[in-house]
Design a protein that fits this description.
Blueprint (H helix, E strand, L loop, with lengths): L4 H5 L8 E2 L2 E2 L1 E2 L10 H14 L9 H20 L8 E4 L2 H12 L8 E5 L8 H10 L2 E5 L9 H7 L4 E7 L11 H10 L3 E5 L11 H4 L3 E5 L10 E5 L1 H6 L10 E4 L4 E3 L13 H17 L1 H19 L5 E4 L8 E6 L4 H10 L2 E2 L1 E3 L4 H7 L4 E5 L6 H18 L1
Parallel strand pairs: 3-15, 5-6, 5-7, 7-8, 8-9
Antiparallel strand pairs: 1-2, 4-10, 9-10, 11-12, 13-14, 14-17, 16-17
Helix pairs in contact: 2-10, 3-10, 4-5, 11-14, 12-14
This protein binds pyridoxal-5'-phosphate.
């Protein structure tokens, strides 16, 4: 199959709309992706034809909804190459998954234990661990980054010790697009007996991870970054870990038997799925995975790499423009500033021309502190973007520059 971007664009109704009188150019894919018709149809179909609560009713609708939800779980299991379906916990998203694990680890950490996070983390992968360390007396240590926006692997190895219990790392930095060497990090951490949680929120729209091969202990992601709806995601955990971790929330669905004296918990995955879940979202997450696979991750990666190279080359022609995050291994994200101009001002002007970019710290203030900048303009590309759209961005940035300097 050849990659036909014009045909793919027809799958995304939002790409037909205009913003401020201009055709929408959507370059904020790292914040959330747009949704193809197949995912939208799946959600409309669920609410139009078989909306019901799951795992409870004997009636037909409830059985249909349960079957669709569990089929989505298996689809997601297969996509991420997870060994057992009960290792796939539906969550409300990456943040929820991280908090669930951090909450549980309070039982396993003691004073003086060490937890490593990377300097490239999203706030949602920093704050829960700080809270955990406050609660347990464990110590949070930071794997430093270099000017290119890469982790300093020697420093990581020097930080690892018998005291290290956990390492938390994103696969791809949302602020810079750096792809971290997670396989190496997992191996080195395991050699010291530490567990590893990988935040895959920013990578799984661009590549298909093989979690069985990676041998990672925990992996979290959000559907909305990969063409699915908001408010749903997964936590993968190795069965041994999930069996040891205590439940995060109490409620319906997660129990085996309740009396006022004692409650016993349900088997995996239900132990971590208290209350009525995002049923429609889970089913639509499955539809999003199907959609992405129908395009093919090899094709997506190759095309997005082209977009990245083109955008980098064209943007760097603008005098005074600096790109942050220059690792050789990057997803299709360009984070930049123009000398003496505030990123917010650039974002506002390009929006007037219909172009959506992100400005600010991108929920990664420590990365901005490293570069001593308040923020950046971030253009993040998806497989439904085009070189023509990048040309429009370059023109718009030039215009903003001439207006602001
Ligand atoms: C988006 C993102 C998150 C947070 O995801 P939510 O869906 O908001 O929970 C965490 N980490 C990274 C790297 C992200 O890109």
């Amino acid at each position: 199959m050849t990659f036909n971007v014009e045909k793919i664009r027809q799958d995304f109704p939002i790409l037909q709309r205009k913003v401020n009188g201009y055709p929408l150019v959507y370059f904020d894919n790292a914040a959330t992706s747009q949704k193809p018709q197949a995912v939208i149809d799946c959600m409309v179909d669920y609410y139009s034809h078989y909306n019901a609560n799951i795992h409870r009713g004997v009636h037909t609708l409830s059985q249909e909804a349960t079957d669709a939800y569990e089929a989505a779980r298996r689809k997601i299991q297969k996509h991420f190459q997870i060994l057992h379906p009960e290792e796939v916990i539906f969550t409300s998203g990456t943040t929820h998954g991280i908090n669930l694990v951090a909450h549980g680890f309070a039982n396993f950490l003691k004073k003086g234990d060490e937890v490593l996070v990377s300097a490239l983390e999203h706030h949602s992968n920093i704050v829960p661990w700080q809270m955990l360390c406050e609660k347990t007396g464990a110590i949070l240590k930071v794997i430093p980054m270099n000017e290119a926006g890469e982790l300093v692997m020697d420093a990581f190895e020097a930080l690892l010790s018998e005291k290290t219990q956990l390492v938390f790392i994103n696969h791809v930095s949302n602020a810079l697009g750096t792809i971290n060497p997670i396989a190496e990090i997992i191996d080195k951490a395991h050699a010291k007996g530490a567990a590893v949680l990988v935040d895959g929120a920013q990578s799984c729209a661009h590549e298909k991870p093989n979690l069985a091969e990676l041998d990672v202990d925990f992996y979290v992601t959000s559907a909305h970054k990969m063409c699915g709806p908001t408010g749903v995601g997964i936590l993968y955990g190795k069965k041994q870990w999930l069996e040891k971790l205590p439940p995060y929330q109490g409620g319906g669905e997660m129990i085996k038997e309740v009396t006022f004296e004692k409650t016993t918990y349900a088997e995996l995955p239900h132990k971590f799925e208290a209350g009525t879940p995002n049923i429609c979202g889970g089913i639509a997450f499955g539809a999003a995975v199907d959609y992405l696979n129908s395009i093919g991750f090899d094709e997506i990666e190759a095309y997005e790499k082209e977009l990245l190279h083109y955008a980098t080359q064209e943007l760097l022609k603008i005098e005074g423009l600096k790109i942050y995050g220059t690792s050789k291994k990057k997803t299709s994200v360009v984070s930049f500033n123009i000398k003496d101009i505030h990123p917010y001002d650039i974002g506002t002007i390009v929006d007037k021309l219909g172009i959506a970019v992100r400005t600010g710290h991108h929920c990664a203030q420590p990365v901005m502190q490293f570069y001593k900048i308040p923020g950046t303009v971030r253009a993040s590309f998806s497989f439904y973007n085009t070189k023509e759209e990048i040309d429009k961005l370059v023109e718009a940035v030039k215009k903003a520059k001439s207006m602001l300097s």
